[in-house]
Each structure stands twice: as C-alpha cells, then as structure tokens.
Q: What sequence folds into this?
C-alpha cells in the first residue's frame, strides 16, 4: 500500500467493532467469567479469546487476502515472517480483566507493513472507547483527534500502575487497565505521561497501540530506547517505553539497568 487505503481502514474498524460486540455478549461488569483456563501459569485465556480470534481471522482475511497472520490465540500463517503485510492481533488484550468482569480489555488489531504498523484499531466496548490510527492520518478516539502528553520532566509523570518500585516513587500512579494497549493509548490521549514495561513481551500486545501513540505524538521504543520492529521471526520485544517525547530519554536512563538485567537473564528470544 503506497498510501493508506481508507477502505481497508474502514473494514478493519468494522471487523473490530463486530468482534468487540460479540465479546460483550459474554461479559458482565463485576461478574467473574467461568469459562476460562490458563495456557501457562499466570496466562489466562477464555472462550472469548478464541471466538474473537476466529471472527477476526475470517473478516480480516477477506479484507487483505495476501496478508500474513500473527495472533496470540492461533497459529501464524505459513511464511508469515517473510510477508510484506501482516495482521498482528490480540483478540482480547487484557484477558485478566475480561474474566474478572472488569472493563480494562480491548480488541487490538494492527496491520504491519515492512515491519512497521501502518494502521490500527483498538476497541474497548466495556469502556465505550473506539481508537484508531493510520500513518499520516493521526490518532483518534470516539471521533476526537488525540494529542499525546507534552510533559517535560519525569518527576511527577503520570503512569498507569497499581504499585511503584522505590526508585519510581517520584511518579504519580493513575488507573491501570489490564490491557497494555489501553495503557499506551492513555499516553496518546494525555491521560498518562509514561508507560514502561521491562520484560520480553509479545508484538501483538503493543503493535496497535504503538501506532496510536506515535500518531498522537508520543515516542514509542523498546525498554532500551531502540526502535520497535514488528513481524520478527520470533515476535517479541524487550519491553516497551511509551512516553511524552521530552521525558523519553530520561526514562530510558532510569530503565537501562533493569532492562539490561532482563537481557542478562535471557538472551533476545527474537534474535
């Protein structure tokens, strides 16, 4: 796609809306779900994850038939890492909130072209939020264009968290949805100044939110401040750092030793 094809964007949003509506039929605020299990210890999955994955694979496959497929809940398409275009999908980002009856979950879709997201849809129906972004088109939530945080100092920065390390006690905690994509989107919406994760994480967790945040004016990198590249053979990244541009370098410095410690414990699994 030499330019963003608006028909593809509209079809992506339609697929996300349909999947989110379907997922809402099985979700009740405050009521824990019973139809869930653990893929691995601490990694919940539920029927909605599988159902949304099925819906999106069918619908997005019809939107761009030649694109590859990378999802948390199903096998990748053959030759995915060599495809120019790839759908990167987290059917329910924030499954833990979904199964607990909390609203901090979303359907997350990104279209990656040559290793970079070029459009995204992030739909959080329990929060009444519909986010989208496309290269050169800005980032939007519920029809309103977003402008990311412009904070200039790290001390006092708002961060979605429920606890802070001692070294980070100069930051200010704000509400934390379980979905990391929604936490990144909070930076895009100037509802937070910083989101940082220092662990090996999956591309599908952050691909959609990365373009939403960057199109809103935020700076988005891995935990060491390196550019993110998507659709790797092993689709992981060393954390994510999404912040107001003027505090990004300072945040990288603060995170550096923690990120290096993670690297010492485990070599890059995506290399």
A:
């Amino acid at each position: 796609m030499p330019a963003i094809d608006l028909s593809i964007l509209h079809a992506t949003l339609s697929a996300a809306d349909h999947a989110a509506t379907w997922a809402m039929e099985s979700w009740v605020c405050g009521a824990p779900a019973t139809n869930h299990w653990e893929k691995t210890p601490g990694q919940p999955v539920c029927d909605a994850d599988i159902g949304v994955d099925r819906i999106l694979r069918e619908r997005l496959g019809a939107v761009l038939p030649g694109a590859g497929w990378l999802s948390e809940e199903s096998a990748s398409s053959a030759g995915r890492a060599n495809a120019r275009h790839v759908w990167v999908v987290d059917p329910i980002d924030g499954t833990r909130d979904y199964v607990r009856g909390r609203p901090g979950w979303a359907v997350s879709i990104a279209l990656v072209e040559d290793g970079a997201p070029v459009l995204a849809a992030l739909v959080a129906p329990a929060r009444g939020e519909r986010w989208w972004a496309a290269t050169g088109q800005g980032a939007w939530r519920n029809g309103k264009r977003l402008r990311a945080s412009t904070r200039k100092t790290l001390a006092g920065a708002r961060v979605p968290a429920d606890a802070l390390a001692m070294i980070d006690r100069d930051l200010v905690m704000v509400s934390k949805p379980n979905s990391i994509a929604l936490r990144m989107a909070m930076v895009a919406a100037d509802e937070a100044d910083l989101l940082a994760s220092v662990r090996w994480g999956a591309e599908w967790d952050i691909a959609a939110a990365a373009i939403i945040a960057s199109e809103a004016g935020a700076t988005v990198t891995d935990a060491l401040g390196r550019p993110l590249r998507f659709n790797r053979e092993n689709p992981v990244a060393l954390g994510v750092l999404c912040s107001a541009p003027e505090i990004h370098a300072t945040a990288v410095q603060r995170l550096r030793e923690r990120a290096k410690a993670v690297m010492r414990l485990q070599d890059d699994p995506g290399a």
